[in-house]
């Protein structure tokens, strides 16, 4: 499956038929470390020889942040600016 495998599920009371589209952050992570991971990904994407393993692990860590960011109905250009790795062929397959 996708990147959400590492995230523990949190039981919430949902209405019948509701979907928990907002996974929790990994334990010990919050908004500040997530932004650091995103910055690290942006830097890695600018390199000539991209470390795909490092990039993939950062994408996995930032999955909850990315979900929240996209569900805020941001423009596609802003999403591409924030998560350039999301638009590579490898990451499209993972998503």
For this entry, what is the oligomeric state of its chains?
single chain
Number of strands: 0
- Biggest sheet details: none
Mean pLDDT: 80
Helix and strand pattern: HHHHH
How many separate helices?
A: 5
Per the principal axes of the C-alpha atoms, what is the gross shape? Answer: globular
What structural category characterises the helix and strand content? mainly alpha
Q: What is the percent of helical residues?
A: 40-55%
Give a brief description.
The chain is an all-alpha fold and 95 residues long.
Write the layout of secondary structure elements.
Elements: H1 31-46, H2 52-61, H3 63-71, H4 76-82, H5 89-94
Describe the structure.
- It is a single chain.
- The protein has about 100 residues and is mainly α.
- The protein has a domain at about 30-95.
- About 50% of the residues lie in helices and about 0% in strands.
- It contains 5 helices and no strands.
- It has helices spanning about 30-45, 50-60, 65-70, 75-80, 90-95.
- The radius of gyration is 14 Å and the shape is globular.
- It starts with about 30 loop residues before the first helix and ends with a helix.
Task: Pick out its properties.
95 residues, single chain, globular, mainly alpha
